[in-house]
């Protein structure tokens, strides 16, 4: 009897642990989306060839990102009540995003240049790379995509990501927007992995839409995507 109680308690522990991981994964994804949204909302300003100093500093980015997150989620991403590990990860992530904006001031403020290549996807990749360097063996965030859509080779799905994309997200009956998560291993290290699907909206199609193969403003061939098509996925890894 005692033994059974012990097992049950142990199971509860495991699931409470997983609940924290899911919450952490969702928060990291939501902060990434808030950050990308701020870049997107300022894209016209960033692309304005007639203005030099745009005043779009890391500090300005920070306030806008926190505000966007608050509006979407109803709570501060660095709320005091958060699990401490999760809070410290989110803090590292936000700092990484702010640093990317600060380090990009020269290009953002380039006078006489319209398109500068500073777009949400590039910003996200740079911020995720910085986060990964700082978190080393604790966590990583990556934006990946179905193999046939990948533009930057660094975004190529690994075996696990590809399997989830193909067998879950591309399955006709997968509920739109539903994440997939699993306790698994990465290079032999136990990890909680979470993949969150992303879809094209109207605003993506100037680059990822039709006609397929036509060069977009960034120099890549368009994918021929339509609104609602699976575009990619946010991939979160939390090492155990
Ligand atoms: C201005 C053109 C442009 C727009 C608009 C745009 N993208 Fe992209 N997207 C790119 C470029 C360029 C890359 C490669 C960035 C890099 O160097 O990592 C990219 C990368 C991605 C990736 C990562 C995988 C890869 O192919 O490297 C995903 C997923 C993605 N875009 C989805 C979207 C979605 C969803 C939207 C709309 C919300 C969107 N994009 C809007 C140009 C664009």
From TrEMBL:
Keywords: Heme, Iron, Kinase, Metal-binding, Transferase. Residues 183-240 form the Cytochrome c domain. InterPro entries: Cyt_c-like_dom, Tll0287-like_dom. Coiled coil: none annotated. GO terms for molecular function: electron transfer activity; heme binding; kinase activity; metal ion binding. This is Histidine kinase. It comes from Roseovarius indicus.
């Amino acid at each position: 009897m005692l033994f059974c109680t012990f097992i049950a308690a142990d199971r509860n522990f495991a699931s409470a642990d997983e609940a924290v991981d899911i919450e952490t994964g969702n928060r990291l994804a939501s902060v990434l989306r808030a950050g990308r949204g701020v870049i997107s909302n300022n894209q016209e300003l960033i692309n304005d060839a007639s203005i030099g100093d745009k005043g779009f500093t890391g500090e300005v980015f920070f306030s806008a990102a926190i505000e966007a997150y608050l509006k979407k989620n109803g709570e501060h991403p660095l709320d005091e009540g958060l699990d401490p590990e999760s809070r410290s990860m989110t803090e590292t992530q936000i700092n990484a995003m702010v640093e990317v904006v600060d380090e990009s001031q020269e290009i953002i403020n380039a006078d006489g240049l319209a398109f500068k290549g500073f777009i949400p996807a590039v910003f996200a990749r740079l911020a995720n790379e910085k986060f990964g360097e700082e978190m080393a063996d604790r966590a990583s965030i990556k934006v990946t995509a179905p193999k046939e859509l990948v533009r930057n080779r660094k975004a190529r799905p690994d075996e696990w990501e590809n399997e989830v994309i193909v067998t879950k997200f591309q399955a006709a009956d997968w509920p739109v927007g539903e994440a997939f998560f699993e306790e698994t291993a990465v290079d032999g290290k136990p990890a909680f992995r979470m993949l969150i699907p992303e879809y094209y909206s109207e605003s993506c199609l100037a680059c990822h839409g039709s006609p397929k193969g036509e060069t977009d403003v960034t120099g890549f061939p368009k994918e021929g995507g339509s609104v609602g098509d699976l575009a990619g996925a946010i991939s979160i890894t939390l090492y155990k």
